[in-house]
Amino acid sequence: VGLLGAGTIGSEVFNQITLREKELRDSFPDAAFEVKKVLVRDPLKNRRVSIPQELLTTQLDVVVDDSSVDIIVSLLGIADVEYEAILKALMAGKKVVTANKDVIARNGQELLQTAVNKNSALYFEAAVAGGIQVVDNLTGRYGLNHFYAISAILNATSNYVLSRMTSAGAESEQALLEAQEKGYAEPNSENDLNGKDAAYKIAILVSLAFREGWVNPDNIFTKGIDSLELSDFEYALEMGYVIKLIADAQRTEGSLDVWVSPTLVHKNHPLASVNGVTNGILLSGNPIGQIKLEGLGAGSEPTSASVLSDIMRAAQDGTPLNINLDSAQVMEPGESVGRNYIRMTVLDRPGVTAEITKIIGDNRINIDEIRQLESATDGTLANTVFLTGFSGQGSLHRAIREISDLDVCQKINSVMRVMR
Question: What is the pLDDT of residue 375?
């Protein structure tokens, strides 16, 4: 094994291979697992585990060109650098394991095709949902099923933040700080909060599950949790919902409907109970029906467990992944259909609600419920929530623009999807 990177995950992988040498030898009596080289930026740096100095190198070519290295494990973390390293290793005919969802989501088509061309293989179990190991299921034992829907909680950091805001009434900044202190979140959590991390992961899952081609994450409607306020959580709880960052995909005629958005999830929905740093994935297909996968989505141990599983698969198999590598057709966001939650601040006077409901109705959107908490009005302004029926997102956003132009509307505070 050639290890690229010896950070949190890389150190844990090195540690596990070293500690479990006997187990590996018993499982693979004809092979010996050994870390031959470790690529690092600074050979003198103090690390979580002790790595012999003679294994360390600062040169990628030293690892890739070593004929005794069969499997490259790339855990560099920086997308551009990792992409180049993975491509170089595949071009050299090495089997490659990575945990980088950015690289797989954005460059998966090219890298997987390179693996086919070079009769090598690329493994990325740890790129999605930590320790759940959903990639192995989708490419292996679930492979003969026809999946048509995925709903998932795929980002541990945002799920921890939303869970704390729900259960403890914590502000988002406070909840994020807690997550960082506990090691559940990176110092820079921008992609966790803005939804991009979840978009990368759902792009990978849809590409593997639906087999309609590779999904470009740039084509996925993506909205994060940055703008949510505690008022949204109060309303959600009163109406029997919790708020989750949902990554969703539906197979439709001619295209795939894929989106990431904060969502009101009904308390009886299977994903409503997925809290903290846990990830949850709901798969629907034929003939398997609906199944729920749940497990830790963050931390060095579940991630390194997935990396180790891939190393085992590479040692046993090593054949290229056989999936559709054409470009998938993703639906335009405005064509997507769903229920929605709209919270707005309006003037507290007679006729305002009627004026707003008329605009919503004129855009052919049904209203299922209107709510106003007693604490949400001060006699001049009122905080009002509308739950809509199914409608196209294009119609919804047209209605919101028209409402925003009204003198009686002070602000559109929140717009979210609704799942029952």
Answer: 62
What pLDDT digit, counting tens, does each position of 247-300 carry? Answer: 999 999 889 999 999 999 999 999 999 999 999 999 999 999 999 999 998 778
How many structural domains does the chain have? 3
Angstrom distance (rounded) from CA 347 to CA 201? 41
Annotated binding-site members for NADPH: 101
**Are residues 165 and 278 both part of a single domain?**
yes
User: 51 near 17, Cβ under 8 Å?
Assistant: no
Show the low-confidence residues of the chain (pLDDT under 50).
Answer: none
Domain identity same for 150 and 292: yes
Binding residues: 4-11, 101, 186
Active-site residue, from 88, 201, 223, 244: 201
Per-residue pLDDT, 377: 67
Confirm whether 292 is a catalytic residue: no
**Phi-psi map region of 375: left, alpha, beta (phi>0 left; psi -120 to 50 alpha):** alpha
CATH number at 349 reads 3.30.70.260
- Determine, yes or no, domain membership for 79: yes
Per-residue confidence (pLDDT) for residue 32, from 0 to 100: 77
Cα dist from 325 to 85, 91, 98, 107, 267, whole Å: 21, 18, 19, 11, 38
Question: 215: closest CA among 253, 263, 251?
Answer: 251
CB 390 within 8 A of CB 337: yes
Burial 55-92 (b: 16+ CB within 10 A, else e): bbbeebeebbebeebbbbbbbbbebebbbebbbbbbeb
DSSP class per residue in 83-117: HHHHHHHHHTT-EEEE--HHHHHHHHHHHHHHHHH
Q: Which two tokens stand for residue 367?
A: 């209203």
Tokens of 306: 């997935």
Q: Please check whether residues 238 and 263 belong to one and the same domain.
A: yes
Annotated binding-site positions for L-homoserine: 186
